Amino acid sequence: MAASKLPALSLSLQFGRFKGVERHRAALPRHSVTRWIRHALDIDGEITVRIVDADEGQRLNREFRGKDYATNVLTFDYAQGPVVMADLVLCAPVVAREAKENRKTLVDHYAHLLVHGTLHAQGWDHETSEADADEMEAYEIEILAGLGIRSPYGK
């Protein structure tokens, strides 16, 4: 974000009950989650972040997107202005597996997915066209670089 003052954020950070949840709590201290999301916001936001297990992640993806598998992040956007209002649901086992497969730290992968989900909450969409995907990816890389995190795309 180019502006010197970051948008305000009202954050609710929630963790489901599942085996290994403490590892995910440790990777997601409230101050870090707040920082990552605020850097991806263009205006003030009210965002709930919920970390879930594979069963809840799969159920939500099936019910709301018609896809019967757990995915890394789901964005439920309710308003894009005057305040961004959204829920970001991240599936802990999927995030952990992807981080390991891609040789990323769990913290960096969560940071990327929270930035990604926050952009979706503001109307960014990488599934509309290749140009939109390239633009969103470039913006994610820029935001993450400002946070001291390497490109998640190997660029």
Give the overall form: globular
Distance between the termini: 20 Å
CATH topology name: Collagenase (Catalytic Domain)
The major pleated sheet works out as:
4 strands, mixed
Unreliable stretches, pLDDT < 50, 5 or more residues?
A: none
| CATH homologous superfamily (4th level) name | Metalloproteases ("zincins"), catalytic domain
Mean pLDDT: 95
Proportion of residues in helical segments:
40-55%
Total count of domains:
1
Integer-rounded radius of gyration? 15 Å
Strand order of the largest sheet: 1-2-4-3
H and E string: EHHEHEEHHH
Summed up, the helix count is: 6
Strand fraction: 15-25%
Short account of what is shown:
This protein is of the alpha/beta class and 155 residues long.
Question: Could you describe the 3D structure shown?
Answer:
- The structure is a single chain.
- The chain has 155 residues and is of the alpha/beta class.
- The chain has one domain (9-147): Collagenase (Catalytic Domain) (3-Layer(aba) Sandwich).
- 47% of the residues lie in helices and 20% in strands.
- It has six helices and four strands; from the N terminus they run E-H-H-E-H-E-E-H-H-H.
- The chain has helices at 21-27, 30-40, 54-65, 92-101, 106-121, 130-146, and strands spanning 9-15, 45-52, 73-80, 84-91.
- The chain has a four-stranded mixed sheet with strand order 1-2-4-3, sandwiched between helices.
- The longest helix has 17 residues, at 130-146.
- It starts with 8 loop residues before the first strand and ends in a 9-residue tail after the last helix.
- The mean pLDDT is 95.
- InterPro entries: MetalPrtase_cat_dom_sf_prd (IPR023091), YbeY (IPR002036), YbeY_CS (IPR020549).
- Single strand-specific metallo-endoribonuclease involved in late-stage 70S ribosome quality control and in maturation of the 3' terminus of the 16S rRNA.
- One of its GO terms (molecular function) is zinc ion binding.
- It is found in: Cytoplasm.
- Keywords: Cytoplasm, Endonuclease, Hydrolase, Metal-binding, Nuclease, Ribosome biogenesis, rRNA processing, Zinc.
